[in-house]
Design goal:
The structure is a single chain. Helix 1 packs across helix 4. The strands form 2 sheets. A 4-stranded parallel beta sheet has the order 2-1-3-4, with helices on both faces. It has a 3-stranded antiparallel beta sheet with strand order 5-6-7, with no helix packed on it. About 30% of the residues lie in helices and about 10% in strands. The chain has 6 helices and 7 strands, in the order E-H-E-H-E-H-E-H-E-H-E-E-H. It folds into 2 domains: about 80 residues, no CATH class; about 70 residues, no CATH class. The structure holds zinc ion. Zinc ion binds next to loops.
């Protein structure tokens, strides 16, 4: 089964970032106008997400469209997750939010030493990099904070709720 991919309009970029956080393909482009976004969504078989209830009357018709009446981004996210039955666990924090591509696990952490603060390097064992922009990621406290904010329960591999993540393993 092909996984649902999304195009978000200019008003929904926060929602798009949240979708990337759970590992889904969400595109946006603040440099182009709405009709160009719709054309790209149609060409790439993406669901066009918008708050514009008049979307089909004003623009080329999106082949797949979902209109949100909710304006609060976290609630929008929860609505989309429910509507499209997205799996918020499977690929959580596996993508670069900026580039919409999957992260790569750093095999030799020595290589990223120069790119992170010494305290972070000392505390965290596992790092990831974005193959496109080169940003280094680690699963710090922001992971738990973001999950809490989005209403995502982090599960361990055995399906039970996980209060301590696999990483990091603090040294101190
Ligand atoms: Zn990136």
């Amino acid at each position: 089964m092909i996984e649902t991919q999304f195009m978000v309009d200019h008003m929904l970029i926060r929602l798009g970032k949240y979708l990337r956080i759970i590992g889904y393909d969400a595109a946006w482009d603040s440099q182009v106008r709405t009709h160009a976004l719709i054309a790209r969504a149609n060409a790439e078989n993406r669901v066009f997400l918008t708050c514009n209830t008049h979307i089909t009357g004003q623009y080329p018709r999106p082949e797949k469209v979902f209109v949100l009446r909710e304006t609060e981004p976290v609630k929008q996210f929860q609505i989309v997750v429910t509507e499209f039955r997205l799996d918020s666990q499977k690929k959580l924090f596996s993508k670069c939010i900026r580039c919409n591509v999957f992260l790569e696990k750093v095999s030799d952490r020595e290589k990223i030493r120069a790119f992170v603060h010494p305290n972070v390097y000392a505390r965290f064992k596992v790092f990831f990099t974005c193959p496109r922009c080169g940003t280094v990621f680690w699963k710090g406290t922001h992971v738990a904070n973001t999950c809490r904010k989005l209403g995502i329960t982090m599960m361990s591999a055995h399906g039970s709720e996980c209060s301590v993540f696999e990483y990091p393993t603090p040294n101190s």
